[in-house]
Amino acid sequence: MTIIEALDRTDSLVPNGYTVQDKIRWLSMLDGMISRDIFLTHEDAPMDEPISYSEDVPIDTSLLVPHPYDELYVYFLASRIHYSNEEYAKYNNALIMYNSLYSRFAASYNSLHAPKGGKLKFF
Question: The whole model's pTM is what?
Fold first, then answer.
């Protein structure tokens, strides 16, 4: 999923008045956490440092999480919109969906990639 796809899908499901820059900042925060907490903890990380998107990032930039888990971006943006609007029931619903996809992606990635670290020590 690209940035523009995430924005378009979110805006079609959750009409809102937040700017593209607001939503890119939220996506930057999310991909920063994903890169730090998941990718960079493994030997074959596809980057050397956490991801960060500036306001002038090309909107056709691909986001980190692949299909079939990429819908988490839509739920994450929806949760941020609902939270900012003080719509807490909608926020909780979107966050549950986001957390489910995030957990499934993390488990899948962790099962397919060797973690960083030294040899195991037994005492």
Answer: 0.92
